[in-house]
Write a structure and sequence with these properties.
Strand content: under 5%
Oligomer: single chain
Structural class: mainly alpha
Mean pLDDT: 82
Radius of gyration: 16 Å
Number of helices: 4
């Protein structure tokens, strides 16, 4: 399978686990319920002893405006892991 698709959005810049959880929330009818997410990093940047998190507003904006582009949907459909109904949720199939 050839996965040569345009990288024209940030929606797929995440773990496949997160995308699978989106599908699970949808299939369980939980799309309108509030959810809690964590943002973290595994290793202290630059080997420092502390980190300052900046950009929380960017993260919130990303989540609030999350959408799949046609090339995102094309890629995700090719994986055969997600239902067509899931893509219909985003209104741009």
């Amino acid at each position: 399978m050839d996965f040569n698709y345009r990288d024209d959005s940030l929606a797929l810049h995440t773990d496949a686990y997160q995308l699978s959880m989106m599908q699970t929330y949808f299939s369980q009818g939980l799309t309108n319920r509030k959810a809690v997410f964590e943002v973290f990093f595994r290793k202290m940047p630059f080997d420092n002893g502390y980190a300052v998190y900046a950009g929380l507003s960017h993260l919130i904006q990303y989540i609030q405006n999350l959408h799949f582009t046609p090339s995102d949907i094309e890629y995700l459909k090719a994986t055969e892991l997600y239902s067509d109904d899931f893509f219909n949720l985003f209104g741009n199939v």
